[in-house]
Write a sequence for this structure.
């Protein structure tokens, strides 16, 4: 599975939104994710991709595309 | 009222004696698997474990100094390894080092803050990931003190730590409400344990006259309230329940 599909799958799972609703431009605000949702998502991503995402990097994450680009740069 | 904790795992810090021990036994009686944390009294912890097992529940005893973050992480891992889940955390471990402020040494200040306040952060932080990952809610109950509400002469360190625990409780209740994790505190008054065993007879007399119920409380009476918060009380969060026989400090 591509990073793109994996990340979208995890976001869809964690935040309970349909994968079809997720585009690169979708912001976490659009899908009603609060700060704790983001942290939980980060936890799931860290586990799936075996990496550590710093608080600073979390701050920079605004859209689904941001997450995918970040993960792609790390794996 | 539902007090059934079958299939749930509870960590109780400082569970080798006093209020912690009574709480471990009460939760076990309601069916929970218990992680008995102790720091120095391994033997007493084994006795609590045997007592729980004799009553038909499962128990694990784990040494951890709550003032050490790495110890608390190891405590949470041990709970997960053994019981596969964590549902309830009782932050009970605590110490006193009473002194008038003018005589209070820096280590009397820091040891009480490190154990009673930072200890609560350490243990709670260590269970946060597993608790959120399970997505099945949870209960966190902090043992504060009436000193943390009213203040008390000779206890600036202890009252500051317990007042901090109360503010921590209210904040965390807000953070975790959306995940159905409730966070509450009990604030015991004068309870018959080793902690109050050192009080002089004269002090005791004085105290009794200020307690409406006219007697000290028993550890089991605090444990009952903790059990209520850990099992029923599903719509109670961010609260501090005084268990003090109506004490006027
Ligand atoms: N007894 C009272 O009148 C009273 C009143 C108000 C609040 N409290 C609070 O209730 C809690 C339990 O107190 P108790 O009366 O049962 O006293 P206790 O001294 O009998 O028990 C305290 C327990 O905490 C453990 N402990 C201490 N430091 C620890 C550490 N660093 N790591 C792990 N465990 C540690 C001890 O080993 C012991 O088992 C404490 O938080 C105390 O502040 C007690």
């Amino acid at each position: 599975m591509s990073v793109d599909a994996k990340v979208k799958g995890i976001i869809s799972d964690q935040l309970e939104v349909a994968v079809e609703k997720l585009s690169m431009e979708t912001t976490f605000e659009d899908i009603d994710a609060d700060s704790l949702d983001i942290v939980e998502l980060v936890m799931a991503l860290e586990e799936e991709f075996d990496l550590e995402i710093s608080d600073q990097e979390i701050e920079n994450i605004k859209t689904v595309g941001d997450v995918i680009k970040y993960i792609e740069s790390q794996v | 009222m539902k007090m059934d904790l079958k299939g749930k795992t509870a960590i109780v810090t400082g569970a080798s004696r006093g209020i912690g021990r009574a709480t471990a036994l009460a939760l076990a009686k309601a069916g929970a698997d218990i992680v008995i944390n102790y720091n120095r009294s391994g033997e007493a912890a084994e006795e609590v474990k045997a007592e729980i097992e004799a009553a038909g529940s499962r128990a694990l005893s784990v040494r951890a100094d709550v003032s050490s973050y790495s110890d608390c992480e190891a405590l949470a891992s041990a709970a997960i390894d053994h019981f596969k889940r964590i549902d309830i955390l009782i932050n009970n471990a605590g110490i006193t080092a009473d002194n008038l402020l003018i005589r209070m040494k820096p280590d009397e200040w820091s040891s009480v803050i490190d154990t009673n306040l930072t200890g609560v952060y350490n243990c709670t932080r260590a269970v946060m990931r597993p608790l959120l990952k399970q997505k099945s809610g949870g209960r966190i109950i902090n043992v504060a003190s009436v000193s943390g509400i009213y203040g008390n002469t000779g206890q600036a360190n202890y009252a500051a730590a317990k007042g901090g625990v109360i503010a921590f409780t209210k904040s965390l209740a807000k953070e975790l409400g959306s995940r159905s994790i409730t966070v509450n505190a009990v604030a015991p008054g004068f309870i018959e344990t080793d902690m109050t065993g050192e009080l002089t007879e004269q002090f005791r007399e004085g105290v009794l006259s200020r307690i409406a119920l006219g007697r000290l409380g028993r550890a089991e009476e605090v444990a009952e309230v903790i059990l209520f918060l850990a099992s029923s009380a599903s719509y109670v969060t961010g609260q501090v329940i005084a268990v003090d026989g109506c004490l006027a400090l």
